[in-house]
Design goal:
The chain has 306 residues and is an alpha+beta fold. The chain is 42% helix and 18% strand. The strands form two sheets. The chain has a six-stranded antiparallel sheet with strand order 1-2-3-6-7-8. It has a two-stranded antiparallel ribbon with strand order 4-5.
Length: 306
């Protein structure tokens, strides 16, 4: 399964959800005590438009040159060393996050916002799998569905138990250099952003003050655990030949990372433009030094990791 199939659609859905990102909470956020019909219409129209746009993209653009086949399954649980699954979980988590807080911004109480907004990540991702199951070259993936459910469940579970997100899912990207080996990973920086899983890292970023109970720790300081992988040209195995020449051996290996992070939504500022900026960048892991363990080099220190 090509990574662009997932990440391109995630990008489209997220671009459509940008208008509701203003609903993400900050340290001084308070929600309306009653339903704001104007805001609710804005949220419903935005999310509905995102959903329809995604389905339309699948139906009329992405699959238009592919043959329709009987519904079938595809086991990609070992593909890309599970980086694809991390991407699914991240997308579902962030979609549920945005939908829930958008409904809270519109004045829905916590119970109804969680009921209607919480499952959105799973709702948005499921049609992709169904379409995959109907076209040649893809297939319905239960591992992908499990990752989607994990992302949505992580959001809903924390909101139900803690009334907040103690752990945020975040993303970081840094060019890997692997596209120089093979055009399958992109022939431009933009293509490589979508195609090159070697350049992606997915994080669980936990609030240190909340985890330790210590008021001495700044409320915006987080501890982050990351997962990435390297050496991947194709989904399961790297090619033996490329353009008629033997392809160099590249070790495929996992990376586990430990670092610090910042929850930008908890940085105190009364400037509305800065609040909007902090909300936007809070999807991304802030660069910090990191300890890395990988299956090739063991433990190493990264002075700057993004």
């Amino acid at each position: 399964m090509l990574p662009v199939n997932r990440l391109a659609l995630i990008g489209i859905l997220f671009l459509a959800l940008v208008p509701v990102l203003r609903a993400q909470p900050t340290f001084m956020e308070s929600y309306p005590d009653s339903l704001n019909q104007k805001r609710l219409r804005s949220v419903v129209l935005t999310e509905t438009g995102s959903y329809v746009a995604g389905l339309s993209f699948l139906s009329f653009i992405w699959y238009k040159d592919h043959d329709r086949v009987p519904f079938h399954y595809y086991n990609d649980s070992k593909g890309y060393l599970q980086m694809d699954k991390a991407g699914h979980a991240y997308a579902a988590y962030r979609e549920s996050y945005s939908a829930y807080y958008a409904l809270r911004w519109a004045g829905l109480d916590k119970k109804r916002a969680l009921l209607y907004g919480g499952p959105i990540g799973l709702v948005f991702q499921t049609p992709i799998e169904i379409f995959d199951g109907l076209y040649e070259g893809w297939g319905f993936s239960w591992p992908d569905m499990a990752a989607n459910a994990l992302g949505t469940g992580l959001f809903m579970g924390q909101e139900a138990l803690f009334n907040e997100q103690v752990f945020l899912m975040k993303f970081s990207y840094a060019p890997s250099g692997y596209p120089d080996y093979h055009s399958a990973l992109g022939e431009s920086h933009l293509e490589s952003f979508f195609l090159d899983y070697n350049a992606h890292t997915y994080w669980l970023s936990g609030n240190l003050q909340r985890l330790t109970g210590s008021e001495k720790i700044p409320g915006w300081l987080n501890i982050a655990f990351g997962y990435s992988a390297n050496g991947m040209i194709k989904e399961f195995e790297n090619p033996l030949y490329y353009r008629g020449q033997p392809f160099p051996h590249l070790d495929r290996y996992r990376q586990y990372l430990f670092s610090l992070d910042i929850d930008c939504s908890k940085i105190k500022t009364r400037n509305k433009w800065m609040q909007k900026l902090f909300r936007a960048v809070n999807l991304i892991k802030v660069p910090f030094p990191a300890l890395e363990y990988n299956t090739i080099e063991g433990i190493r220190f990264r002075p700057f990791y993004f």
